[in-house]
Fold:
Amino acid sequence: MFRRAPDRIRDQVTFTFDGILITASAGDSVAAALLAAGIRASRTTPVSGAPRGPYCMMGVCFECLVRIDGVGNRQGCLVPVQEGMTVETQKGAHALSEEPAP
Amino acid sequence: MVVGGGLMGACLAWGLARQSLRVCVLDEGDIALRASRANFALVWVQGKGLGFPAYTAWTKAAAAAWPQLASDLKSDTGIDVGLDQPGGFTLCLSDRELEANVDALKKLHNQPGAVAHPYEVLDHGQTRALLPAIGPDVSGAIYCPLDGHVNSLRLFRALHTAFKAGEIDYRADHTVDVIDPQAGGFLLKGDWGEIRAPKIVLAAGLGSARLAPMVGLDAPLKPSRGQIVVTEKAAPFLRYPVVTVRQTDEGGVMIGDSEEADGASLTIDHGISSVMADRAIRMFPLLADLNVVRTWSAFRVMTLDGCPVYEQSRSYPGAFITMAHSGVTLAPRHAYDLAQAIAAGVIPDDISVFGTRRFHVPACA
Structure:
């Protein structure tokens, strides 16, 4: 569905999405890297459970929520992808941990 | 004819149609200053009626009638308004704050003619047993078993959906500019034209201040602005509504308790919203992990003493005014009791105590 523009290919960065190894270009946002890899859905909604994927790509719509390195509800379009990142589908509502954030 | 299609006007219109009256609602458009879309959605009894015991009784009866309203709206429209009345908390972040709240409740219960409402004062441990997510800064709480909350946006939608089923003639973008009392009724005019009605109810919120004098009524309001912060949806962690923090049936957390004497500007004051957020995080430290997705501010329909105003015009009988900042809590009283009184044309004693004469005492003294 999306094809990377030839002038936007930089150094390779690898990360995992739900355990699958994905190769991205340095400077990609997590959401852009997922779309470039052909991943359409990266969360399910808390209300109906419907699958959703990145939409506005500018921090407004909250459709691109994912878990990144164990932290829920991160906006994938606002986080630059990093080597070795663990990205997971955000399933439904963000479960709050018992202990407060450090 | 109901002027205003917010929660007050919508409850009355729905209730009047149930009295087999032909009802028309003249409303403003989407950009109206509409407290009905900005409120915190509590059905709240705790602490209400200091200086005005009849208001405690009126509010208690409203909370008790809420299940009936929720069930009538469900059968009229199929919409579940998410009513939940598990009791509610006021959380205090210091012993002094807890004492001040307990003192206010004692005063409320000691005033002449007081109407009691049940409540319990809980220490940190007792509070934690019911609200496991509280932080160490919570010194105690007041719990009232009568309190609860609803999904007020769905309540608003349910009432407007019921308009269609109940053949209520709803007209948006019909701002009323002038009301002319005439023989046998009233003539209402705006840039949309004019319309005649034998009986009118002013439920126009802040707009009533301008309209009331045209029919010999008075709308004593004071400026009151409130701000609300809303987080992204989270898994349920808060079983009970807290007066300043509640988790909606869909998972979002609403934070809001500001009351500012500002009637002019709706610009968000970040100083105030950050104090609200900071207090909420001290109450529930896990909130620190949540993103804020929306903030807004709105004007309350706040009368001089904070209690509702219901009155029929002496000089122009058939014209009524209805104002309250607790449009959610009091919805059942407005839809049933007040609508019935307006249909009958006579406001009974238990409602007429909410007339504006109470504001004239200091003026005469």
Summary: The two ends of chain A are 40 Å apart (CA to CA). The mean pLDDT of chain A is 91. Chain A is about 5% helix and 30% strand.
